[in-house]
Amino acid sequence: MIITKDMTIGEVVRQKPESVEVLMGFGMGCVGCPSAQAETIEEAAMVHGLDLEALMAKLNA
């Protein structure tokens, strides 16, 4: 499965549970909270001030 920046965090976590460790490693501690379920990877990266390309590379590694 390829993760894209327009996928929601909830969708990614459900389809690829090992992504939680990557997201937490980037400082996204609220991967299970209600707002994260509808927030896209791109939106979350922007809110947290993260490098989207680095996050995507790690999620898809």
Characterise the protein shown here:
InterPro entries: CHP03980_redox-disulphide, DUF1858, ScdA-like_N_sf. By secondary structure, the protein is an all-alpha fold. The protein has one domain. It has 5 helices and no strands. It is globular, with a radius of gyration of 10 Å. The model has no long low-confidence stretch (mean pLDDT about 90).
Largest sheet report: none
Cα shape: globular
The helicity comes to 55-70%
Question: Structural class of the helix and strand makeup?
Answer: mainly alpha
Q: For the record, give the distance between the C-alpha atoms at the N and C termini, rounded to a whole number.
A: 11 Å
Number of H- or I-type helical stretches? 5
Number of beta strands: 0
Strand content: under 5%
> How large, in whole angstroms, is the Cα Rg?
10 Å
User: What order do the helices and strands follow?
Assistant: HHHHH
Fold topology:
Blueprint: H1 9-15, H2 19-25, H3 34-38, H4 41-48, H5 52-59
Please describe the structure with a list of short key phrases separated by commas or semicolons.
57% helix, DUF1858, 61 residues, Disulfide oxidoreductase, mainly alpha, 5 helices
Brief overview, please?
The protein is built from five helices and no strands. The protein has 61 residues and is an all-alpha fold.
